[in-house]
Amino acid sequence: MSSIPVARIRPGALEKVRRGHPWIFGDAIVSAPRGAGDGDVVAIEGGGIGVLDPTSPIRIRVWSHEIPNSFDALFGERLARAFARRAHLPASGTTAYRLLHGEGDRMPGIVLDRYDAVAIARPDGAAAEAVLVRNQATIVRALDGIGVASLALRRRDRKELEAISGPPPPASVEVREHGVPFFVDLAAGQKTGAFLDQRENRRRVGEIVSRRGAGTVLNLFSYAGGFSQRAALAGARVTSVDIAAGAHATAQESFKRAKLAPGDHEFVTADCFAFLEEARKRRRTWDVVISDPPSFAPNARSVPRALSAYRALHGLAARVLADGGTLCAASCSSHVSLEDFLGTLDDKALGRELSLVAAYGLPEDHPTLPSFPEGRYLELCELR
Could you tell me which CATH number the domain at 72-185 has? Predict the structure, then answer.
């Protein structure tokens, strides 16, 4: 690449970059190119190349430790490698998965999810969006090669999907996870439509229920009902609790697609903390309790408050867990480490003696970098 503008960064930040961390914050920059805008490629003195985001706290996202001949060629190579990593997933009966996981695939800030013949892109910030749009033709060609006909964009500041290539995306779509049909509301769903990062944990919940011989399951913060559906398919009677009534409609549609009768199960629209308090007063218990709340820690400053909230939630959940039952507790915050999260599941928090038997992280289509702990945001802990 000819005449790339150069950015100089502090020695400590440069060492992190050399070890593989993909973010350079604004306060680590000694000098930045003048006049460079969103998505412009810059050379990092002594550290390769990155993409500039002048208005973001993450000022540069690192793409390579070397300076390639062409950034466009580098984009195409990285995209092909990311797609190749997932080539085996359709063979498992899975038609919804992450095709591109930003920093984990060394294409920072860009997420691309597949829902059968539809792909939804979600850039993190103006710079990533500029890179995505600039390389749109490369993405479309790669998608065509794997049978994806429609590409749409969901900007972080907008709810609506924006068609980029091919036919407009449908409002909803049926996909499969390990052969199980799953209904996704693309128009109104969270993130790109569904939480694909919990796919393997949904399967594991089904296995947990099967090993127990069915019984009863409580799914807190149930949203689109993925955990509920898997538990029901394993023979359990499921109580799904979420404050959003519309989420239950999506969950019930997934039940129907899997030939499950929603009327055989309980769907409760309520605040989960209030529901647990009431259930405890009524001495209700369940054989398996699943807690998968939205992030309690959107930033580092909120971590102490988040840990207190997790402890309170887990204490309430443990009190409605039947003797010999299984508690599955999840966190989706990159600011809460596994060790800190386990601290909200100790004997004092739970008020009873449970043992950690397994802790699961992100699935293989959500790879992370060893030097990038911020990318390891998901934990699901199984206790019994």
Answer: 3.30.750.80
Q: Which fold has domain 6-64?
A: 2.30.130
Task: Tally the residues of the chain.
Answer: 384
For β-strands 6-9 and 162-165, DSSP reports them as unpaired
The domain ranges of the chain are 6-64, 72-185, 196-383
pLDDT digits (tens, 9 = 90+) for 89-116: 999 999 999 999 999 999 999 999 999 9
- Phi–psi pair at 184, nearest 5 degrees: -120, 130
- 253: confidence class by pLDDT, cuts 50, 70, 90: very high
Query: What is the C-alpha separation between 142 and 367, in angstroms, rounded?
Result: 20
Query: Please, what CATH class does the domain formed by 196-383 belong to?
Result: alpha beta
Residue among 202, 254, 200, 204 at smallest CA distance from 224: 254
Mean pLDDT rounded to a whole number for the chain: 95
- Cα(160)–Cα(378) distance, rounded to whole angstroms? 26
| pLDDT at 159 > cutoff 80 | no
Residue 195 half-sphere exposure, CB side, CA atoms within 13 Å? 21
